Amino acid sequence: MKILIIGSGGQIGKAVSAAAGALGHQVFGADIKSAGARFALDLADMGSVGKVVEAVKPELTALCSAMTYVDGCEKEPDLAWKINAQAPGGLAAVCLDTGSRLVYLSTEYIFDGKNGPYSETDPVNPISVYGRTKLEGEVRVLGRMKDALSIRTTVVYSFDRAGNNFIMQLIDSSSRGVEMKVPLDQYSNPTYAPELADFILELSMAGKSGVYNVAGADRLNRYEFALKACEAFGFKKDFLKPVTTAELKQPAPRPLNAGLKMDKLLADIGKAPAGADKNLKFLRQKF
Ligand SMILES: NC(=O)c1ccc[n+]([C@@H]2O[C@H](COP(=O)([O-])OP(=O)(O)OC[C@H]3O[C@@H](n4cnc5c(N)ncnc54)[C@H](OP(=O)(O)O)[C@@H]3O)[C@@H](O)[C@H]2O)c1
To answer: Which end of the chain is more exposed for a tag (fewer CB within 10 A), N or C?
Structure first.
């Protein structure tokens, strides 16, 4: 299948590109110019997005680009709205015109984190600009294209030297012996990017549509996750400093008691992502 991956230089985009390539699909990567992809586009400029989709004429488009810096969205809400909310809706319209299905990457940050873990049908209530704009992106995609797929995920990690995900930050802090403050009160399901990518493709190839949660099996707070990573990598744990989210004084509020339920995935395709211990072991083999 001809697959266009928008955000091919990002963490999830890289994983989806690798997984799709391994399955023998024809993969076309697109990203903002600085990310060095074959096709350059900017979600803030729908003209550039339309040109790439029309040039590639994909059967499936995976939107793995967004303004992902949660605190940055708080500081630049108009730009976040343009990229996270308007662009996905515009892309859905372009995909409809060119005959491509669309898979959108959504987030547990569309919930307030008062009573997680959440199923696909639980009421949403985002508490940050990132969460509000990502939710609007999901609503616009699903509203425009009836067979579009929205995958909600959370705390995605992978071994990516160029990346800045939680595990890469932990590896960096440990190797430099620098203290890492880790919140004790943010609960969610850490998700291994290569496994997420496999599920994104499997759901897409199975013709599934609507919303699916895809996240790791274990619901952990960040400190618990950091401890597991240290165990898996053989790191001492003394550089980790458990703190509350309030102590971090981050500009954007975080959903604390969050996490995602995997019942729908299990019911529909009979499997769900593994837990953190297994995936941290895979990751350990990469460095
Ligand atoms: N990572 C997570 O834990 C997580 C959890 C839930 C949902 N998601 C969603 O999953 C998707 C992918 O996340 P990710 O973690 O892979 O993000 P990422 O690593 O930050 O990658 C995002 C990619 O989008 C590119 N990009 C930024 N602004 C753009 C623009 N205006 N036009 C085109 N491309 C642009 C980035 O380029 P630059 O690097 O040059 O800026 C980067 O290549 C996002 O929709 C995100 O909201 C992620």
So the answer is: C
Whether residue 85 has its Cβ less than 6 Å from ligand 1: no
CB of 34 closer than 6 angstroms to any ligand 1 atom: yes
Cut 0.85: pTM above it: yes
In degrees and rounded to multiples of 5, residue 79 shows phi and psi of: -65, -40
CA dihedral sign, ordered 82, 30, 71, 75: negative
What's the rounded Cα separation, in Å, for the pair 187 and 183? Answer: 9
Give the pLDDT of the chain (287 residues) as one tens digit per residue. 999 999 999 999 999 999 999 999 999 999 997 767 789 999 999 999 999 999 999 999 999 999 999 999 999 999 999 999 999 999 999 999 999 999 999 999 999 999 999 999 999 999 999 999 999 999 999 999 999 999 999 999 999 988 899 999 999 999 999 999 999 999 999 999 999 999 999 999 999 999 999 999 999 999 999 999 999 999 999 999 999 999 999 999 999 999 999 999 999 999 999 999 999 999 999 88
Measured in Å, residue 87 CA sits from the centre of ligand 1 at 13
CA of 10 to the centre of ligand 1 (A): 5
Ligand 1 atom 40: residue of nearest CA: 35
Q: Ligand 1 in contact with 154 (CB < 6 A)?
A: yes
**Ligand 1 atom nearest to 155, measured from its CA:** 3
Residue 152 vs residues 119, 200, 216: alpha-carbon distances, Å: 10, 10, 12
Domains annotated for the chain, with CATH where assigned, are 2-156+189-213 (3.40.50.720), 161-188+219-257+276-284 (3.90.25.10)
Ligand 1 centroid distance, CA of 192 (Å): 15
